[in-house]
Specification:
Elements: H1 4-21, H2 25-31, E1 37-42, H3 49-53, E2 60-65, H4 75-87, E3 92-98, H5 102-108, H6 116-129, H7 131-135, H8 140-161, H9 163-170, E4 176-183, E5 188-196, H10 202-211
Parallel strand pairs: 1-2, 1-3, 3-4
Antiparallel strand pairs: 4-5
Helix pairs in contact: 5-6, 8-10
Length: 225
């Protein structure tokens, strides 16, 4: 790719192709945003939510940061969550990690990373919490994969503990929080076994996710349900 100007040219070509196939596409898209899903994922450029789920723009509300972290002090993430839950009334919040995550690898490598170390502290805390499980893994690559899974599960539980989700559940709002993982090597999403639809389901879902096996990728490889 030559540079930003080529992006503008590609945009015009894309918009023209869309209108040629569906003349009313952009009018419909501009008129309403009614996604059923909030996707909390990694900022990694190889993990675009719309693309890997097969969803169109307007069908998924997205928040992304390094290693899909949801700390209770992050007003950016919390504001996105509140808007998605309270205004858009999404029915599903999906926290999706991915194998090959640079943030996860950096949290494990023992090297200084400057300002990023303040953010990586959240992932390092997950690693410290599950130190025995990680130590039992056969090598660095396996530890990184396991931490990517554990981090997604822990962040999904963090979502459940926010006042936003707790208040929604207390009002009887239909809302399920899930943890998934994406594999760059085969393009498939896998269910990590964490799915909580109310406050009472959080602890059992957490225990299941920590003790269970990955779900069938074929069940979540195209469109979340």
């Amino acid at each position: 790719m030559d540079g930003p100007h080529e992006l503008l040219e590609r945009n015009r070509a894309w918009a023209g192709a869309v209108v040629a196939g569906d003349a009313g596409y952009f009018e419909r898209l501009a008129a309403q945003q009614a996604p059923a899903f909030l996707w909390i994922g990694c900022a990694d450029s190889r993990v675009p939510a719309n693309v890997i789920t097969g969803l169109d723009p307007g069908e998924v509300f997205v928040h992304r940061n390094i290693a899909n972290v949801v700390p209770h002090s992050d007003l950016n993430a919390l504001t996105v969550l509140e808007y998605a839950v309270s205004v858009l009334h999404v029915q599903h919040v999906i926290v999706c990690g991915h194998y090959g995550c640079g943030g996860v690898a950096a949290a494990l490598d023992g090297q200084p990373h400057g300002l990023a170390d303040n953010w990586l502290r959240h992932i390092k805390d997950v690693a410290a919490k599950h130190a025995d499980d990680l130590a039992a893994q056969p090598g660095d690559a396996a530890r990184a994969r396991k931490l990517a899974e554990l981090n997604a599960i822990e962040q999904a539980r963090n979502v459940c503990r926010t006042t936003v989700v707790q208040e929604a559940w207390s009002k009887g709002q239909e809302l399920t929080v899930r943890a998934w993982i994406y594999d760059l090597h085969d393009g498939l999403l896998r269910d990590l076994g964490f799915a909580a639809e109310d406050a009472g389901a959080v602890a059992p879902a957490y225990r299941l996710a920590l003790g269970g096996e990955l779900g069938d990728p074929g069940a979540t490889g195209s469109r979340p349900t």
